[in-house]
Amino acid sequence: MALFTSLDDLAERVADQSLIVLPPDYSNVPVAAVFALIRRGVKDLHLLFAPIGGIAGDLLIGAGCVKTIEAAAITMGEAGLAPRFTEAIQTNAINIKDSTCPAIHTALQASEKGVPFMPLRGLIGSDVLINRSDWQVIADPFDSNGGPIVLLPAIQPDMALIHAPLADREGNVWIGKRRELVTMAHASKTTFVTVEKIQDENLLEDDLTAAGTLPEMYVGAIAEMKQGCWPLGLAGHYPPDTDVIAEYVEQAATQAGFESWLKANGVMR
Amino acid sequence: MSCNQDEFLICTIASLLESSRHVAVGMASPVPGSAALLVREETKGQIDRLRLSMIGGDANNPFTDGGRELFDCSGQGRIDTFFLGGVQIDGKANINLIGTGDYPNMDHRFPGSFGSAYMYFVVPRVILFRPEHSKRVFVPEVDYISAPGTSEEGVYRPGGPYALVTELCLMMFNRERKRFRLTSVHPGHSVEEVRDNTGFEFDLPEDVPETSGPTDGRLDLLRSRISPEIAKTYPEFVARVFETAV
Fold it and tell me: In terms of pTM, does the model score above 0.90?
């Protein structure tokens, strides 16, 4: 059975230098857990986004928690560019492994299957490929369509970190149609989850919920955290707090502004 | 019936979708999304109707297998039309979504390449949509190739650039010649204006026609039936674009 614990204890259990995979802004981002990681002062994280990052990545970069970031893009969406990310790239403060969305999905799928690599179409002739010494181009060994194809090594994160609407007392977690969370969890050594609510009924006992459930076997620890995505939204529960996000983008334009935003919003005391 | 620029661009893109069967629309793309919703409504109930998958939100988003499903579908050839943009686009239709200056510590860093390095290869018709028509955007050579416009022989490449829509004109891409051809110039603009604001060479006919504006029927459909549908994904866009229309 998964460990049920507090948010701060969950953050304590995330080791420095971990490779952590996080979901994109539209899909159950555990921002409250990110705040807890910042309070704990985690260091030298290797962040992977599946496949696009937003405020969670920008917060961790601004707080000095990140050594390397891998994503197809880091963006605050309609609110603009991610300010701490942008400055960190321009000042060479973090390593960047620029990718493309399906390459990240595919590398996670390879890990999910326990195979060392998987092929992917596209990429040949792009600077994305040229700048990835960890990827290889081979001739199609089956000669099915001829031509070269890119091989991507599997990525097995130390941990997937996600938020979800609901868990049960066994530690099964309901994610609905957000299947990228399932891929992330399958690919990773363990998954830490924050949830809005914990219910008594077993999610696997009803087919309607079972199909959208991440089984407990993948889940390491769960902390109950209402509004766990704030200021991002949780589809079907609460919308993003666009005013707060816009205010963040404006204030985090400078490191001093970023730090006062953390204090004003209760992240740092 | 007069229309504003966004309505004009929506209808210009719609005219490019009339033989599409399955259009996918990426994140933060209200104009392409509106065009696809419009053509879907116009072809509703027909055997060759247009299917639409919008990943920018939950509305009109049919995917149930996570973020990878769009890419898996595209790799199989189930999607025939997609949209991309670019911080820079050059005359060979190479696109740069990542920034300007020397990679990686660029002068101006943008979010990243998103799915372009894959979608541009596998989706047969990629429409480049970039309203700003300037030499800052349309450059002789991009600083970084997020995705190349063309590929060497032998590289699997069923997809690629089809058309380019800007605030000034419509261009079509010729894959054999590896060049854009100016197809039409929007009302109120000129070939000279296009040339003066484009940093690369392109082909053009002796007489360049004016881009046809939307018919009254199409514009009326867009305002009455399509705008509420767009609002499910892009409420702020609809409030801005259609408030003057009613």
Answer: yes
